[in-house]
Amino acid sequence: MPAFTRIDHIGIACHDLDATARFYRDTYGFEVTHTETNEEQGVREAMLRINGTDDGGASYLQLLEPIRADSPVAKFLAKSGEGVHHIAFGTADVAGAAAAVGERGVRVLGDPRTGSMGSLITFLHPKDCGGVLTELVESAAKPDGHA
Ligand code: CMX
Ligand code: CO
To answer: 110 is in which domain, residue-wise?
Structure first.
């Protein structure tokens, strides 16, 4: 069984990243700790660190605003509206974890590629996960200090 060590993040689809970030700041005091655009995923994203430090052991909210009409998040917003889009589990070895989950009959959506903050990510099909789009994340930073 692969080791999944934390909830890395919860991904939330929104139309307006800045307005949604303001809601989380004003309602809960959660601050945006990182922003970036991921061209491949077709999103502008904001990470709000909820606990820990950026050492590979923290948990985040990940706000996602589409930058292209044909991106997965744009498609989701058109169909379902704003809300929780995916959950992401942290692991020290995303390729190994994806292979192990794939052996259990879950469709893995592509090879590991670049995610937030230099991480390696892949996705599991929501139809094989009880309706939950699931992401696997290997942080660029390792909690034990080893690269
Ligand atoms: N959660 C739950 N179900 C979802 C879903 C989601 N986020 N997105 C799509 N689905 C469901 C749809 O409702 C649909 O169900 P029905 O067949 O019952 O209608 C089914 O999955 C197929 O959806 P679709 O709208 O036809 O979309 P596609 O099949 O083209 O794509 C998916 C779905 C999951 C393969 C695609 O969204 C994907 O590859 N996602 C992974 C990449 C991604 O989401 N990137 C953005 C986040 C980036 C990041 O986290 O850094
Ligand atoms: Co994500």
So the answer is: 4-138
